[in-house]
Amino acid sequence: MSKSKIRETPLTPAPAIPAAFWLALGRAAWNALRRMLARPGPLTLEGFIFILLAFGIGLAATNTGTNLLYLIFSLMLAFLIVSGFVSIRTLKKIQVARSLPRHIVAGETVDIRVTVRNNKRLAGSCGLQISDMLRDGTVAGCCYFLRVPPRGEASAVYRCIFHRRGLYSFHRLVVATTYPFGLVRRSFSIHAELEVLVYPQILPWERLGFDTPPDLGERESRRKGEGTSLYGLREQQPGEGARWIHWKKTAQTGRLMRREFEAEEKKNICLVLDNGLRDPADPKQIEAFEHAVILAASVAHHLLLSEHQVELVTRSGRIAYNAGAHQRYRILRALALIQPVATTEEKPLRLVVAGDAATIVIRCKGLGDRVVYPRGAQVFVVGPPSESAGSGESVRAEPVHAGRPEAAVS
Fold first, then answer.
1. Contact in structure between 169 and 135 (CB atoms under 8 Å)
2. Which residue from 32, 217, 259, 319 has the least number of CB within 10 angstroms?
3. Which contacts qualify for 169-172: CB closer than 8 Å, 24 or more apart?
4. Each residue of 82-118: pLDDT tens digit?
5. What single string gives the DSSP state of each residue in 172-199?
6. From CA 363, how far away is CA 300, in angstroms rounded?
């Protein structure tokens, strides 16, 4: 028998992966990371890194055939799948509602309450983050709930500051979670339309910037009360203090005589906000007008707290005399919505003050038309921001003479 010849075939090495491939792969991964950070998607940064590691381990297991690497690769994929499933399950049957205070003032901290109810029968919802969005896309605030029990509810409060007066529109609530491992972010939106009226900022008296405070004189009412003028004398009653005993009359009559005083009536105040501007599109005049609104709102607030009867007069309308908290909120609502008007339009300022009332006029500097205010009115001028003291926290008002045309005092 002849021996068969065995032909040995030389083994050719596998072609090497070119460096351009790895460079392109690295660029693709970097671009995906940048897009993910710029616009959050279902994967978090940790989840993206986790997938890259899993891809590397899977590639190593394929090249080497090591069972341990295959086991690690399968466990990492199982972690990713479980994370996505549990996060979806967490957001099932969730109800969210918000509640705001009835009265909101610009520049003051507002507590907004968010309530979450979990309607699932057995499973709780964990790691919920709720973002409250305005219509313009601004995030008003965020709340975090560690756990909401099944068939239960939880509440949290976030704080928000509205810096300017006017209407604000809340648009939607975004509920998101990265539970349980932080690898996948799931979210959904709840449309919760709500319009909120924000009152103008209220400043204390010392911040109003009056060079000369307005004269708010009081008058005697010719009836008993807590005043300074003497109303009469009467006999001291048992249990009354000795502070107001009239000792000279007591010595003359031989009986304890007590002084009584006249009550002082608060003077009615006609508060005038002249919302006419020469150029309502000028940013400096608009800013001066906003300062004038803050000044008018602050003056009205303090006068009504002092139990004055206050009337508000503008070129856009009039709010009749009244007192108390209801009148205060009526005036603040009107000032929250007021807009400047051009003085060239046919909207004159009809200022008729009836009775014994003090008149306070607040206007912006440089009105275009000639307005005559009643003689005796206290006129205060609010200039542009560059001419006013402070930056939003105080308003400077300069007094001028009343009873003369505006052109003479601007």
1. yes
2. 217
3. 169/134, 169/135, 169/193, 169/194, 169/195, 169/196, 170/98, 170/132, 170/133, 170/134, 170/135, 170/140, 170/194, 170/195, 170/196, 171/133, 171/134, 171/135, 172/133
4. 888 888 889 999 999 999 999 999 999 999 999 999 9
5. EEEEEE-TTTSSB-EEEEEEEEEEEEEE
6. 15
